[in-house]
Structures are given as structure tokens and as C-alpha cells.
Model the fold of this input.
Amino acid sequence: MVMANPSLLLQSIFILFFLLSCLSSSWSCPEYQKQALLQFKSSILAIDSSFDALDSWNSSSSSCCQWDKVTCSSLSNSNSISTSSVVIALHLSYLLAPLMPSSLLAPLFLIRSLRMLDLSGNSINGQIPALGFGNLSNLVHLDLCRNRLNGSIPLQLFQLKYLQYLDLSSNRLSGELPEEIGNLTKLQQLSLGSNKFSNAIPSSISYLRELEQLDLSDNALSMEIPTGIGNLSSLSSLSLGKNKLTGGVPASMQKLNKLNSLDLEGNLFTGEIPFWLFDFKDLQSLTTWRKQSYLE
Done:
């Protein structure tokens, strides 16, 4: 019988434990991120002890990367070896939690590695935490729609230079849309509909050259559509209905040749409907201020 070499056996066991250790650590989120998520859950439980949507979030778990509604991404060292993971996405829509003050979101702002945060449909009330969201400088996707947020949009949101998706629709937000909105040059979708925004559409919106969907409907926006909107050559959907916009449709919009949906209903426009609105070859839905729907 051939006897195994003890030194080789020990070496194999060492390598096995090392690999298992690396595998385990690659799925271990930082402790501070785990504690931040637990604190968020605890804050909700303090309001409603029957809340159970985050049952997988518990202190006995070795890593928050294994929890429901949490997505992690591994970090690598200079040798491309995965050494640890960080939380990059939280899918927290429709948690069926009680009415939550926006201050309860504070623990989430400690997780600066976040790229995607979905808090839609949660009855969050109060103002949007300005400094908190300002900390999340890596955000690419932010969804706060269908809540009860009020006040104006904090300027800190317009400093999130990587944002591609921003949905604040169906809240109670008000005030003017600031010129700083033009800082979000990577935006592909901007949804601000069903709020209480007033005054003019900022001219800086023309800087959002990568925008594909723009929804400003169901607000109290007034004055004329800025001519610079014609520079948004990637737009496929434009919703400006149910506002108080005046004047006419700027001729510059003829350049929006990728439009497949255009809503202008319920405004205070004057004059005739421009004939060129019917020339967009990809247009499938057109609703004008004369309460007529075409092309459907």
C-alpha cells in the first residue's frame, strides 16, 4: 500500500482552506454596511413590529450579500483576485411598510458603494434628504416614485454625475425645476410627472443629450417650451401633458426624429397644430392640446 506524503497532504489541506477562505470573503460585505442595513430594518420595526418584508436580514447571517433585495459586487486587488464584496444595489420597492418618515433612510446613506437604489411605492413622507443622497455619489439608478415626498428637489441630487435613471414621479414635490438639472448629462430617463412643480421648464434641460424618456406631465409648469428641447436627439418619449404651458410647439422639435410617443394634452397652447408633428416616421402615439389622440 502506498502511503500518502504527510507534507503534501498538509499542503493540500492548507490550499483547500485558503481557497475556501477566499471564496467566503469574496461574498462578505463590509460589517459597517451590514450594520447599516440592520439599523434601517430596525427603524421600520420600531414603527410596525409586524413588518416582515426583510426577514432574511438578520445579525446571525455571515454576510448581507446573501440577503433578499441586496446585490453585491466583488472587489479585486491588483492581481484581479476577488478579496471582498460591497453592496451596489438595494431593491426595496413596495415593502408594504407603514408610513415612513424620510429620516428613516439615514442608515442607507452610509453605503456609498450603492449604484442602484429603488425605494418606490413605500409611502415615504417628508422632504428628500439632501445631504444623505449627496453621499451616494456612485448612484446610476434612483427610483423614489409613488411615495409622499414633499418640498423641492435638493440641489445635491443634481451633483450625482453618474445618474442614468431618475424617477421622482407621483409624489408631492413642488417648487421650480432648477437650472442645475442640466448637470445630469448621463441621464437616459427622467420622470418627474404627477407632482406640483411650477414655473418654467429650465433651458438647461437641453444639455441632457442622452435622454431617451422625459416625463414632466401632470404638474403646473408654465411659460413656453424651451427651444433647446430640440437638441435632445435621443428622445423616444416626451410627456408634457396636463400643465399650463403656453405659446406654441417650437419648430426645433422637428429634429426629434426618434420620437414614438408625444403627449401635449391639457395645456394652454395657442395656434394651430403644426403639420410636421405628423411627419415623425416612428411616432405611434400623439396627443395634442386639442384633446385629440392620433396614430394609436
Q: What stands out?
A: Residues 6-26 form the longest helix (21 residues). The mean pLDDT is 88. The radius of gyration is 25 Å.
